[in-house]
Design brief:
The structure holds two protein chains of two kinds.
Chain A lengths: L14 E8 L3 H7 L10 E9 L3 E9 L5 H10 L4 E6 L2 E7 L5 E3 L20 E5 L2 E4 L5 E2 L11
Antiparallel strand pairs in A: 1-3, 1-4, 2-3, 4-5, 6-7, 7-8, 8-9
Chain B lengths: L13 H16 L12 E6 L5 H12 L3 E4 L14 H8 L5 E6 L4 H6 L6 E6 L5 H14 L6 E5 L6 H10 L5 E5 L8 H9 L3 E5 L11 E4 L10 H8 L6 H7 L4 E3 L20 H6 L1 H12 L6
Parallel strand pairs in B: 1-2, 1-3, 3-4, 5-6, 5-8, 6-7, 8-9
Helix pairs in contact in B: 1-5, 1-11, 2-11, 5-6, 5-11
The chains are: A mainly beta, B alpha/beta.
Amino acid sequence: MSNDPELRVSKIRNGTVIDHINGGQALNVLAIVGIDGTSGEEVSVAMNIPSDRLGKKDIVKVEGRELSQDEVDVLSLIAPAATINIVRDFEVAEKHRVERPERVVGVLECPNRHCITTENEPVDSAFEVLDDGVRCEYCDTIIREDIAAYILVS
Amino acid sequence: MRQDHIISAKQLSRPDIEAVLDRAAEIAADPSAFGDRHEGSLLGLLFFEPSTRTKMSFTAAMKRLGGDVVDMGTVESSSVKKGESLADTVRVVEGYADALVLRHPSEGSAKMASEFVDVPLINAGDGAGQHPTQTLLDLYTIRENAGFDDLTIGIMGDLKYGRTVHSLAHALTVFDASQHFISPESLQLPRSVRYDLHEAGADVREHTDLDDVLAELDVLYVTRIQKERFPDESEYHEVAGEYQIDAETIEAVNEDLTVMHPLPRVDEIAHDVDELDGAKYFEQAHNGVPVRMALLDMVLGGEER
C-alpha cells in the first residue's frame, strides 16, 4: 500500500477526487472547474504519476467542492478516461466515469478569428463533440489537437 | 422545403434541391406567370460586404415576383458604423421585411443571425463559409447542361477560402457525383469540408495538375485565385498561372466540357473560351434570377397560394 500513488497527496474529508487524468492535463482540469487558488479551496495536484492504463496520469483533489455535470462534460474533452469520486466524510460516496457530451456550450473559444462567436455578439460559442475532436457549430472549424488551449477561462 | 432559413448547403437534401430546381425551371419557362405572386412583399437586403451580382439578382428576383426590396445600404452609411451588433441589426430589420438576405464577412454570421429572427433568413455568403444560393444556381446550370447521372466534376482554384466551392462540394454529395479538386497545395480544401465529404462517403480526389483529370470531366468549375492569399505577388503570379484554361486546351483534350465559374473572373478562363459551346458561366450568372425567384417563392410561402 505504501506505493499507492494516491497517497502522495493527502486524503480529503469532503470534496472531489478526479483520477486517471491524462498525464500533464491537471492544470487544465483546474482551469475548467474554475480553480486558480485565489478563492481559498484546499487543492492537491499530483502530476505524471506512472499508470498502467494511461502511461502517466494526473490526480486532482479538491476539498469542499463537488463537480457539476457541466464541468464533468467539459472535462471529458481533455481527460476522457477520468474517474470522479465524490468524497463525503473521508469515504467515497459516489463514483462516476466521465461521458462525452454531444455538445459543449460557452466553454471553448473558437480558434477561427473570423468566426462570428469571437466578435462582440450576444452569443455563446457552441461546439459539437466529434469522436476525435470538437467542431464549431457556427463556422464549422474543427479542433483536434490541444483542445485545452481553447478553454474560456472564467 | 422544411427549413425557413437557408443557411448552408449542408442542410439541403436531394428532394429539397430538386424542388427548388424544378420550381426554377417552371419560372424560367414562363416568368410572367409568377409576376404578381408576391405583390406587396418586401425583402430586406443586408450586405455587409460589397456584392454586385448576388445583390442585383436577389433584387431582380424579388421584383420579378411582384415584390420589392429594402436595402440597408453600405456599412459606412449604416448604424453598424456606430458599433451596433449584427444580432441587433437583424432584430430591427426583420420588422421591416418579410424575409432577409444577409452577406457578412464573418463565418457563422448567417446561422447566428437566424437565431435572432422569426422571418426567413437567406445566407448570401458568410466569410469563407457557405453560399447556398450560389450553389443552387450552380446545380441548376449543371442539371441543364450535363445532368447529374454519373456526373464527374472538377473544381479548380481557391478551394480553401472559396465559399462557393464549400457549398457546392457539400451539395454534390447528395447526387453521388465524382468530385475532383484541383488546386495548389496551399489552397486545398479546409479540414472541415474534407470531414463532411468523408462523412458523406463522397467520391473525392485531389490533384495539383489539371492535366491529370481534364479529359474525364463532364464539368469544370473554375474559381478565382486571389492575390491576397499569397505572401508576395511573384508567388501569386507563378501559382495562378498554372490554374488557367484556354480554348485550345479544351478543344484538344475535352470538346464536350461544360465550363462554369461563379464570376467575377480575372484571367483564369481566357476570353477565347467564351466562344465555345461549353462556356456556360454567363448562363450560370443569369440562372441566378429564376433560381432565387424559386427560392424566395418557397420561403415566402408560395406553395400555400
